[in-house]
Amino acid sequence: MASINFLLKDLEDQGLDIGLLEILVPRIGMEIERHDSNEIVIDITPNRPDLMDFTGFVRALNALAPSLESKKQGAATRKHVYEISNKPLASLHVDKKTKKIRPFISMLIAKDVNLKNSRLQYLLNFAEKLSDTLGRKRKKFAVGIYDFDKIKPDIFYNAVHDAKFAPLGSSNEMSIAEILDKHEKGIKYKNIFKSVNDNDSLFPILKDSEKILSLVPVVNSEQAKVTENTKNILLDITGTSEQGVKQAMNIFICSFIDSGFEVYPVKIYYGNKTRVAPLLEHRQIKINTREACKKLGISISSNDAAMLLEMMGYSTEVHGNRIIAHIPEFRSDVFNSQDVIEDIAIAYGYGNITAKPIEGNFEGGEDRIKKHINEISTFIVGLGFSEVVNTYLTNEKLNFENMQIDRAVKKNTISILNAKTEAITMLRTDLLPGILSNLGASLTEKMPQKLFEIGSVFSLEAGNKVQEQLRLAFASEHAKANFSEIKASVDSLLKLMGINDINFKEEKSSMFIEGRCAAAMSGNKKIGTFGELHPKVLKAFGIEEPTVAAEITIHEKIEYQFSI
Amino acid sequence: MHEYEIKILGILKKDRHETDAGIIRKSGINKDSAMWALQNLSEQGLILIKTKKMFSAVLTKEALRYMDEFPEEKIAKMPGSMEISKEIENMPEGSNIGIIWAKKNKWIEIKGNSIIHIEQPPKEYWQRMLLNEINKKKEFDALFMEKNKQGIEALVKRKLIEIKEKNIIEAIEITEKGLEIDASGHGSENEVKELTKELISRYSDKEEMKFKKYDINADTEKIYPARIHPLSIFINKIRKIWIELGFKEISGPIVESEFWVFDALFSPQDHPTREMQDTFFLSNPKEIDIDDEELKRKIKNMHEKNWRGKWEVEIAKHAVLRTHSTGVSAHYMHSLADTNKSIKLFTIGKIFRNETIDFKHLAEFHQVDGLIIGKGLDFSNLIFTLKRFYERLGINISIKPAYFPFVEPGLEINYVDKRTGEVIELGGAGIIRDEIKNALGIHDKEVLAFGLGIERLIFREIPLESLIELYKNDVGWLRNVKQIKV
Lengths: 564, 486
Prior knowledge:
Strand order of the largest sheet of chain A: 12-11-10-7-4-15-16
Structural class of chain A: alpha+beta
CATH topology of the largest domain in chain B: BirA Bifunctional Protein, domain 2
Distance between the termini of chain B: 42 Å
Shape of chain A: elongated
CATH superfamily of the largest domain in chain B: Bira Bifunctional Protein, Domain 2
CATH architecture of the largest domain in chain A: 2-Layer Sandwich
CATH class of the largest domain in chain A: Alpha Beta
Number of domains of chain A: 4
Largest interface: A-B, 100 and 104 residues
Strand order of the largest sheet of chain B: 10-14-15-19-18-17-16
Shape of chain B: flat
Helix content of chain A: 25-40%
Helix content of chain B: 25-40%
Strand content of chain B: 15-25%
Number of strands of chain B: 19
Oligomer: heterodimer
């Protein structure tokens, strides 16, 4: 979720005081992260990038505001759809080679702009955040803004091997390689380009008839920088997603129109072909009031529904049960009627919906494995063991090395590719390492200490399939802990679990003392191992007193059938 | 007198004074029982236990990283002045605290957003020296504690060390009274001390049996009953509520393909949550196959039609640790698509987020996911269901609009913590999007879904400093933690 800052006084000037904001912000699905007497920080829901824009934010909240006074300024009472002039103010020539690296570009010119009183800051912040979120860190699309009066048309969108210009914040000319290597923005965004070091690497640039305007989408040149005093601006959006570029452009067009700027397109030359762009596409979605009511569990008339939609920035036409909803041009998250119905619900107010029970009889029931776990828990608690709950994520040191297990087993472990912490490298393959860590960390507590855990462990089986096993492990630490104690516990427990034909076989395991370790068998099948832990293991976990332990497999393979 | 007390008193009558280890060795009684017996003897004034306070320190993971250099030293040693906001991103964890201390130590000054260096840190920085000394000493006495009071307090406050205090026994001496008492174990001639099988068989109404009176206020040996872990108790409590509300419990795998965790749930393939910093990807296995060709085609169409970009099966095959358990719901929507009955389902299980873990943060949590499939279900039914569930936990929820790719309309559940006034986010819910229903094969039915956090709620049930404490399984904590009411 992106957050955005506005000055409270700027919002107050638009009829939105803090009291009103505290009501409206959550109602539209956002959150006030914090505010002081000066500034407010708001978390914007990711599907509504239009609200990261000051003008868009004010427009949405005023439309939703309950007071008529503030509504007058809002979009709800303004029944028009957004229109853009069809008179191009400049020509843009697109180099065919850009198609291979960053194929889509859209450009507008806004005249008579007013960027004083934090508006410049809001505009730049918005462009930055939009490119970062919806634009996926400038990869999908990115926004560039220039002072149009400092530009000498025509404008060219080219793909070049190298170029030299002074990037923002620098008075010296730098080559593209230098920018990507040394400039703050270059370092941050160079991963957008597939290759940067080849001699045939191509980079997109924007230039006018005299000079370079920017290395797209990394950094603009210092020369055409916008300032508070800028009167006319040029805005470009380039990207790898045609849809993304278009959606972002729509938001800017609407925002500029609502700010009272004059918005003009450019004439784009693709070789011999030309077109005037951007165009604003108007979309409408038909909804049925009865269906909307049925989906939400509310009862309202078509006129009510239409009014609610207007509170969300739509224009509407009502025809009996049907409403034609004109989608606000800045909304890219409205796919079809279900999205329109959600907006009715938001304007209606979630808190105003009466909760209604579901009719009919439903029979609840437990998952078979969870039931089994709880049953076995009562048995093992009866033997005086307390439950522990350890994490599934672990590392080789704890899971293997401390247990004196050969690392060769590692190839069968589920390994994590990208953990931020060294302590996380894999999913546990056994339960005992967790229990022994717990004992090692509880030295000062009174003995005996008897712990158990029931839970899943993970490994890879043949065919690279993930195998999830349900295990039970328990350990007892005290001065007199010995083999017969753990054998007696295992034996009694297996009997309670209803296991047939229990017998014991001598077992060798590097974690147990030789000759004091056994396998628990059900007939010919091994179901567990137990014994006296070797001092090497105890030392590795920092355990000071003799400890006996067992690990038993309850379900050899948990398979999920997705049936009930 | 208990047989252990008699035995110990016997030893002391001979030797006059002894250490606790000596008593344990000579008596052959285990440590806990011996301590209990010593306590009893002391309370009866028969022996004198001389104790002394000792301290030990446990170093946190953070402290272990500072053994060679504290973050404030690192910052003070950095060349030139620098901008805080930019540099901090490139600096290791703990830099914030480093700046605070470097300033406190008057090594740096902060002017606006910049750090200005004033003085190099001394070679022997007192905090580091003290931390190393404490690490070397396993235990230390009150004198050391008093001498380094200020320093230790500072380290504790920074959460670098945790001080544990215990009384250790210096010496045990027998008193005059102890020397005099008859410790043979036999009471006065006609008073019964310990009831035996033999005495019971001898008992008759005709002969009065006199019992020695015990001091019912005397301390007893502490016993700790075996217990179920609070998290299990709480999860079972939640399971029980859902089952009572008519939900059937289901389960699913934690290792999944992106396909089930994200693609089947309408999350676009370039969505930020699918990136490395949020999700655990696996190096082994790297991929999980998606066998159902028809389903694969439907999901591909759903993505390409709505998100416009190209949908790549190679991305969908990536193996991940599930970031939510809603994938289980997706599996069931698919497998139960043709069922005519209305169904309520829930699952509780582990979910994973690629967080930086420390003394406060974990990378794994629990989530309960629910699904209601049926004809004529609506948003108000979903709100009712959620309210009902939280009422049973004593929580009064509020809801607000929220965005999740797989539901429309979507909602978020909050409640206000009465103690702190903080708004706590409990989970999300909504009506499953038509696109997903169509792709998974559900027609003419609505699907309501919710995903709720578990760990956040447990803070209401037991006192916890952080979630880490819950997974530490410290035996003392397990023995003494408040029992959760079911």
